Structure formats: C-alpha cells, structure tokens
Recover the amino acids of this structure.
C-alpha cells in the first residue's frame, strides 16, 4: 500500500515535471540558437549547434545590464519586504481582533482585486506625480506592494487562524506584550505562509513591465522586464535574445524559491507546540 | 536572527530611497523613442555628437513599444513628457485628439508652397515642388512630408520611411521578376515561392491596394467594399490554395524560412534589412504586380517622424536637437549605421550609400506606397480587415460575405459617440444616495452603539491603518477615478459626459444580436467557461502535486519542487509565445507529436474549441505552480499535533486525509482559490499572446474586450472603463453568491 502510494506520487511528479519542462526546452532552444528556431516540424527543440550569441548580445549590447538587473532585485526584494511588513500586522489584527469595519475592510480589499486595471493607470500616474514619486524606486515599490498586499493579507490571515491562540497566551502569561508575543511566538509559527507570501510578492514585482515602463524615465533606472520587452518591436522581435534574457531573469527566482522551500521544510519542526 | 536582518534591511531602504543623480549644467533635453538595435545605436550616435558639440545634456530613452503610447499619454499632459519623441505618422490623429503634439516651429519647416499641396496628385507633381523648393538638395521627399500635414500645418519632421518590399534570393531566382508569378514554384514539400505574413492585415494591404480598394477612403469612410474588396480577398485565397506560400506565417517564421533558403523570396520591411544584408545574393525590389501586366501591389507607407511634445517646441536647444537628428548629417548617419530609409533629398546620389542599394530600393518603394491614413478611425480598421482575411483563408466565409462582415464590424466600432447628457441628474442622484447612506450609517451606529465599539476597536486599528491607507491611496483612488471615466465618451482631452450610454450600448450589444460574436453576453459565457476550466485544472493539479510533494518520506522532494516552479519563474511573455509556436499547424511540436501517432495535424486556431483548449493548456501550465506552492505552504503550516493525534487514534491514512488534513487544508487554500478565480477571470495576457482571440475574436474574454476598446479600437477609454466596471460588478456579485452558497452548505 505504502509502495503503491509512493509510486503514484512519483508518477504524478514525473508527469508534471515533463509537462512543466517541455515548453521550457523550446525557450532554451530559442535562447541557444543564433538564428531563431528552426522551421522544421519536430518534437525535440534543442538545436545541434548551440551558441551563446544571444546571451552575449543581451549582456554586451547593453551597458546598463548589471545596473538594471540590480534594480530588479532591489525593487522586487523591497516590494516583498514592504508588502509583508504592512500585511503582517493587518492580517494579524484581522485574525485575532474583532473590530468595527473588519469585515467591510476585508471585503473592500478583495474587491480591489476585481477591477481590471484598464482605466486606472492614468489616475495612478497623476497621484504619484503629486506625491513626487514618479521616476523613483520608492514609488514603484509602493505601487507593486499594493498589488501584493491583498493576497498577502488573506494568505497570512488564514495562516494566523491555524496557529493555536494558546501559544500566545503562554507568552502573555510570561509577561510578554502583545507585540512581543507576536514577534517571538506567532511569526516563527507562520514561517511557511510568510515564505509563500514573500515569493508571491517578489514575483508580482519581478515580471511586471507596463507600470515600470510608464513610471520610470531613465535607462539606468529600468528593470529587467522593461529591458527585455524592448526587444519586441512593432514589426519584428529578437526572440532569441528575449528567450536568453527570460532564462537569465528566472535564475534569481529559482534561487529564491530554493531558499524559500527550505523554510517550508523548516516550518515543519518550528511550527508545532511540542510536548 | 534580528541582528543579521537589520543591516540588510537598512541597505535595502537606502537603495530605494536614494535619488537618481542629476546635475544641473547646460540645457536638459529629453528624447523618447521605441527603436531597437542598429536604429537605436545610430540615433544615440547622432545625439551624442550633438551633445558633445553643444554642451547640452540629452537624455535618450528607449521605451518598450507595448508601453510607448500609454507612457506618452500619461506623461505629456502632466508635464513630465519628453521634449521630442519619435513615432509613426499614423498615430498623429490620436495624438492631436489627445493634445500631445504641436506643429513643427516655422524655422525648422523648410516648407513647400502650401498652395501646391492642395488637390494635386502627389507623385506627378513632386518634380514641380522640388523645383519650387530650390532644386533637389533641400527638404524631405514630398510623399513623406505630406503624410505629416494636418490642416496645412506640418506635425513632425520625417526621419525614416517604412513600407513592405520584396526580398529576393538571387541564388534561386536569377532572372527578371515582372510579377509574383515569375517566382519559381516550390522545389519540394516545405519550401515556398514566397513567404509573407499571410494572416496580417498590414501585409494584406498590398493586395487591397492592388485590387483598387482601400482601408479608408479620403473622406474617412470605410473603403473596403464592392467588387474590388472581393477581388482582393479572392487573390489571397488563390495564392494560399496554390501552395506557393506558407500558412499561418508570423514575422519570425517568414524571416526564418527566407534565411534558411526555403522561401525563394519574402515580403518584409526595412526592419529585416540587418539580417538580410548579412547574406550574399539578396536583392530588394519594390513589390511587382501579382500577374504580368496587372496593377501594382502597393504597400502601406509609414513615416517615422520626430514630434514636438505639447509646449516644448519653443526652446532653441530643442529645435537645434531636432535639426541635428532630422537634417542632413544626422540623416546620413542614421542611414549608414541604422539602415534607415531616410526620405531626405540631400542623401540622393551620395557615394557612401551606393554600397547599400537596398536602401535606395526601399526609398523607391516608399514613393509609390499608400500613406497610411493618420485619422483616429484608421486604428479601427485592423480588426475587421484581419477578421475578413482570416475567415476567407480558413474557408469559413466567401469573399463576398467576408467583405460585408468587415464593413459591419467597422461601422459597429466607429459608430458615432453617444450624445452628451447633462451631469446634473447624476450629481443630484449621487448626492441623494450619499445622504441616504449617511442616514443609514447614522441609524445603525446609534442602534448598535458604534461609539463604544469604535473605542474597543482602537487597538486593532493601530495594526491595520498603514496598510489600509496605502491601499486606499494607490488602489482605491485610481480605481474610483477610473470607474468614473466610464460615464464619459470621447478623448481624454475633451471628455463628454454621456451618463449610462456606454453601459446601455454594451448590454444591448450595440443593437446587434445579443449572443452575436463580440457581444458582451457571448463573451461573458466564454469568460465563465475559461475561468471554470482553468481554476478546476489549476486547483486539481496544484493541490495533488502539493500533497504528493509534502509526503514526509518523498524522495527527490526538493528536486521536483524546484523544477515544477519553473513555469512560474520564466517570464510568461516568452513562454506563452513558445506555447503558441508549439500549436502552429505546420511547424508546431504538438502536431508533430500527433502525426507521430498517425493523427491528422490540427489547425489549432481555426476553431473555437481547439483555440480555447490551447489557451487553457497554456494558462494551466503557467498557473499550477502557484497553487502547488500555496498547498505546500498550507500543509507545512498545519498543526502537527492534530495529525499525530489522529494517527495515534488508529485512523487509516485515507481517513486521516479525508477527516483531518483535508478539512484543515480547505480554509487555508480558500483565499488562494478565490483570488485565483478573480485573477483568471481578468487574465488576458495568455488569450492575447496565444490565440489572440482567434478565430474571429471568439476566444476573447471580457477583459480583453475592455483592453481592445480602450487601446486598439478607436481608443475609447470610457467604453473600456464601462467594461471594467461591469466585470467588477459581476465578480462582486459572483463571489457574494458563492459565499452565500458556501455558508448554506456548511451550516
């Protein structure tokens, strides 16, 4: 029985891995081929003569490459940090206190996610200008953080609700303040959810280009998605270089996920009440 | 732990707060463009030379093409725009309507006799103009300059012309080419006489003009009708049936087939010059007639021009920069280094350009090309024309009915704006509503003693205020302002209050069939199907994987987890296009796989069911890792003691899952499923990139309709906003209904 279950789990994981990786091989094939994909109908995408010309064009053809990669990292990390720092207390309050407007606030926050951004870009631009936050990293970080906060609040609220109140009460009895108990007891227990939320908030900033291109007006301030999107013109695009860039851009995310999923494992032992 | 985090955090905040360095010295000038590669480098070269000569500081910004128009529209009215920007002339109508450009200052317009510009057919009189203009050395080609005239004023200095031409592989076609018939027939399967973007309206234009028809008439009415329109559609139908051209040919496929020598010729533009000129034996010619002795196939002409942003033409340095870019030396440099086809007379016969005959060929082609109309309605022609073209190529419609459909759809999109209404009743109603709201609020607060409740809530507010304020400012306010634009019609600079007219028009399908193609109700059905299919698959796949990969003894857990998160990690713009390529009829991997098993290849984007399936497959691929990660996070967060207690009680593994793990998991996953549903409902990227709404807009979802209305069709922002508000209301009602059902089920 246990063996059967293990076999089924592996079969599922392997099938999903094939499904996940196969299209990426096409992206790889595109990135490694200097002339674009071959026009043969075939099932194996990697070409027989791979070349790094596209990757080289990406890095060497752009004097700001490292600055822009740095911008992306700084902005995405800052977005995730700001979103989490703001969402943690809010979601804790929603999970633990019953207060006037809690339900209405939560509902309104959910509603903001339902309105397509089609008409709100221009007013957003005007607000950021009034605040003097145009063309600044801080402005972009705040905008991205607001897009990540609703998910973060819901996710963390759910996580806090599964943490037994007794954990905190024990700390209060020991004389800790509410804030202190929150930081020392609740946060460690919510680590898996925080890791997932951090990853999500990071991703919401990492791949975004429309707002970044609209709000930033200096080449050295651009983020990587804006730079990559410039490879697509009205009539033609440099797909090979774009694909190489897409792979480069995904490396930090994979690294981050590797770290985050370690904390998902660590949460197993850190979370429970022992004894 | 805390000690190690703070230095990192403070460094992060230093980095985001640090301003970009700027020094004040000389004049600051800004130039925006959407060029890439050689064109961008040549432009920078020109600008650097100018900056070095004059001491002015010039910021050159290359903006992604996809964000260019919206960036200009947001920045210029707010005073943050560039001094100069480069854009194709056909956008001029939109930019004039939105008040973003102003005429070229008189000192820079070398001018032509205005009297001559009127009513004369251009090419025949170019010579006359040239004579008036002081010989052949001054100014721009008349055809290019004329494209930038509006009411006798010149808007923008022509920088480069773009039009389609014929690239011929002389190794395969050594002889003269008097018509497209002279191209050799395909040598074997998989080779072609001619590759061109056979499904694009832009390329289709050459046949439209060749048949004597047009997209728009001079008076701005729809031109594609009658026998000429039918003939144009028939000629591409015959060409496609002959097997001499590849089907479903994208720009990338066209240049690929040509560069591999599998197409003897291709129809493409100056953007393909860089690659094509690197090969020997490639010659560029104006496009010959379809058949010997037939009418010339005339492509559209686009003139890329340097525009003066509103309020910026007065400054001397700005004019100097414009002169340096557009006039002789800059023109030469852009031509030589950027391979731009520059319509500047001073370049005629210059020895440096003799090595690049292709540039001269393109300039010649441009002189007989049809300047693309620059009226706002031009943008409304692409979709109907493309729809008619593709319907005929698929064999769904006869050329006659396809042409009739194109006109119907154009008229639908460009119907006159609703009449302005007085906002007074609306203001009064709004005032009455807010009074009523305040009254209800007051009564409730008295009944339930909100004062005391408020005091009790104060400690909680300390935890939520900052997040609430930020959300209100950066999400709430833009959202309300955006929603309010749905009550307006017309341009941003001259909005017209129309009340509920946009809503009425959407909900009644603009007087057409309620379930007809492109109607709100039909699109709603597609959107619901789309959301249901995606969410079901996302959750099933994501949660099963999350469960499988959370088994404590699972080997290779980390390995699987990292690999499976990859679809989320790679920017979706590229991976969605990889998926689109995999669904290509002739060259796609999926059809290759099907043929391997003896199944006939499928035209994925020719039918609703298969196109929809292709979209769903792509979106499921993009979205399942998110649900997997959320599930793993939720399982990890479950209190271990409960699970342990259950196993001590002797519950079987299945019982433990069914009665302990699963009920605990549901509340943790619910927010993600709810938000996932909302995001999928509004997820238009995949639809846009994979099927592009094919066939005939039938796979478009509501939010892609909103974007089409706001940005591509005639730029009706108010109409798009009304779509957005309707989507919002649907989602609010839908989630409330689900909530109610859920509550009933649990109680």
């Amino acid at each position: 029985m246990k063996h059967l279950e293990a076999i089924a789990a592996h079969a599922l994981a392997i099938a999903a891995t094939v499904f996940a990786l196969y299209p990426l091989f096409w992206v790889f094939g595109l990135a490694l081929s200097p002339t674009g994909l071959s026009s043969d109908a075939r099932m194996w995408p990697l070409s027989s003569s791979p070349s790094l010309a596209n990757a080289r064009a990406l890095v060497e053809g752009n004097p700001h490459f490292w600055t822009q990669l740095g911008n992306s990292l700084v902005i995405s990390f800052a977005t995730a940090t700001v979103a989490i720092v703001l969402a943690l207390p809010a979601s804790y309050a929603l999970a633990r206190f019953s207060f006037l407007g809690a339900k209405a606030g939560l509902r309104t926050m959910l509603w903001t996610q339902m309105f397509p951004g089609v008409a709100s870009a221009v007013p957003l631009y005007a607000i950021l200008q009034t605040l003097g936050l145009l063309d600044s990293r801080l402005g972009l970080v705040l905008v991205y953080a607001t897009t990540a906060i609703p998910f973060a609040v819901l996710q963390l609220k759910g996580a806090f609700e599964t943490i037994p109140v007794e954990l905190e009460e024990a700390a209060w009895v020991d004389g800790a303040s509410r804030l202190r108990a929150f930081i020392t007891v609740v946060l460690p227990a919510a680590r898996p959810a925080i890791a997932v939320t951090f990853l999500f908030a990071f991703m919401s900033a990492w791949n975004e280009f429309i707002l970044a291109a609209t709000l930033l007006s200096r080449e050295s301030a651009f983020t990587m998605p804006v730079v990559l999107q410039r490879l697509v013109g009205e009539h033609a695009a440099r797909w090979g270089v774009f694909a190489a860039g897409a792979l480069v851009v995904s490396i930090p995310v994979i690294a981050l996920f590797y770290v985050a999923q370690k904390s998902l494992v660590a949460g197993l032992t850190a979370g429970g009440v022992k004894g | 732990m805390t000690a190690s985090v703070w230095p990192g955090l403070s460094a992060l905040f230093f980095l985001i707060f640090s301003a970009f360095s700027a020094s004040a010295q000389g004049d600051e000038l800004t130039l925006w463009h959407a060029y890439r590669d050689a064109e961008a480098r040549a432009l920078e070269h020109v600008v650097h030379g100018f900056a070095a000569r004059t001491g002015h500081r010039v910021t050159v910004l290359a903006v992604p093409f996809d964000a260019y128009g919206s960036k200009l529209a947001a920045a210029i009215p707010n005073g943050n725009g560039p001094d100069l920007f480069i854009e194709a002339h056909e956008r001029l109508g939109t930019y004039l309507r939105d008040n973003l450009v102003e005429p070229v200052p008189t000192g820079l317009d070398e001018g032509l006799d205005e009297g001559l510009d009127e009513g004369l057919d251009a090419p025949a009189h170019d010579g006359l103009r040239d004579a008036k203009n002081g010989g052949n050395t001054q100014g721009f080609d008349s055809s290019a300059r004329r494209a930038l005239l509006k009411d006798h004023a010149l808007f923008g200095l022509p920088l480069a012309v773009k039009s389609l031409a014929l690239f011929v592989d002389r190794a395969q076609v050594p002889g003269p080419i008097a018509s497209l018939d002279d191209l050799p027939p395909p040598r074997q399967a998989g080779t072609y006489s001619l590759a061109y973007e056979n499904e694009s309206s832009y390329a289709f234009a050459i046949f439209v003009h060749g048949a004597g028809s047009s997209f728009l008439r001079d008076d701005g009415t729809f031109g594609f009708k009658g026998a000429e329109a039918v003939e144009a559609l028939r000629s591409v139908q015959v060409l496609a049936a002959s097997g001499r051209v590849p089907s479903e040919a994208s720009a990338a496929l066209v240049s690929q087939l040509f560069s591999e020598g599998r197409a003897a010729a291709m129809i493409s533009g100056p953007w393909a010059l860089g690659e094509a000129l690197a090969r020997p034996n490639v010659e560029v010619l104006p496009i010959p007639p379809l058949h010997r002795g037939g009418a010339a196939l005339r492509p559209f002409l686009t003139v890329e021009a340097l525009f003066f942003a509103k309020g910026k033409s007065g400054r001397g340095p700005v004019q100097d920069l414009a002169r340096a870019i557009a006039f002789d030396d800059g023109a030469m440099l852009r031509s030589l280094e950027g391979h731009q086809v520059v319509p500047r007379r001073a370049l005629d016969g210059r020895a440096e350009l003799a090595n690049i005959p292709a540039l001269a060929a393109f300039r010649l082609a441009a002189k007989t090309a049809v300047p693309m109309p620059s009226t706002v309605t031009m943008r409304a022609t692409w979709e109907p024309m493309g729809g008619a073209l593709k319907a005929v190529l698929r064999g769904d419609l006869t050329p006659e009915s396809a042409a009739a459909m194109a006109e119907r759809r154009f008229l639908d999109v460009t119907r006159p704006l609703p009449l302005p209404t007085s906002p007074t009743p609306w203001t009064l109603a709004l005032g009455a509503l807010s009074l009523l709201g305040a009254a209800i609020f007051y009564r409730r607060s008295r009944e339930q003693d909100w004062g005391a409740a408020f005091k009790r809530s104060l400690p909680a507010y300390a935890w939520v205020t900052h997040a609430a304020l930020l959300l209100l400012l950066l999400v709430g306010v833009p959202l309300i302002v955006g929603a309010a634009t749905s009550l307006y019609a017309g341009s941003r600079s001259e909005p017209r209050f129309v009340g509920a007219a946009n809503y009425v028009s959407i909900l009644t399908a603009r007087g057409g069939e309620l379930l007809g193609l492109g109607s709100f109700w039909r699109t709603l059905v597609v959107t619901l199907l789309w959301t249901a299919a995606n969410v079901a698959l996302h959750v099933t796949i994501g949660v099963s994987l999350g469960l499988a990969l959370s088994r404590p003894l699972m080997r290779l857990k980390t390995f699987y987890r990292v690999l499976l998160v990859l679809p989320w990690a790679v920017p979706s713009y590229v991976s969605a296009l990889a998926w689109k390529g995999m669904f290509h009829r002739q060259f796609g991997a999926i059809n290759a796989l099907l043929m391997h098993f003896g199944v006939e290849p499928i035209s994925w984007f020719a039918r609703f069911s298969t196109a929809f399936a292709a979209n769903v497959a792509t979106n499921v691929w993009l979205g399942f890792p998110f649900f997997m990660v959320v599930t793993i996070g939720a399982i990890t967060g479950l209190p271990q003691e409960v699970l342990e207690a259950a196993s001590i009680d002797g519950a079987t593994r299945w019982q433990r899952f069914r009665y302990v793990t699963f009920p605990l998991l549901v509340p943790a996953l619910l927010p993600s499923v709810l938000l996932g549903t909302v995001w999928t409902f509004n997820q238009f990227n995949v639809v846009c990139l994979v099927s592009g709404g094919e066939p005939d807009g039938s796979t478009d979802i509501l939010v892609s309709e909103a974007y089409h209305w706001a940005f591509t069709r005639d730029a009706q922002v108010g109409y798009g906003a009304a779509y957005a508000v309707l989507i919002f209301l649907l989602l609010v009602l839908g989630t409330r209904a689900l909530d109610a059902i859920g509550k009933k089920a649990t109680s």
About this structure: Residues 239-271 of chain A form the longest helix (33 residues). Chain A touches chain B through 143 residues (CB under 8 Å). Residues 171 and 184 of chain A are 9 Å apart (CA to CA). Confidence is low (pLDDT under 50) at residues 267-275 of chain A.
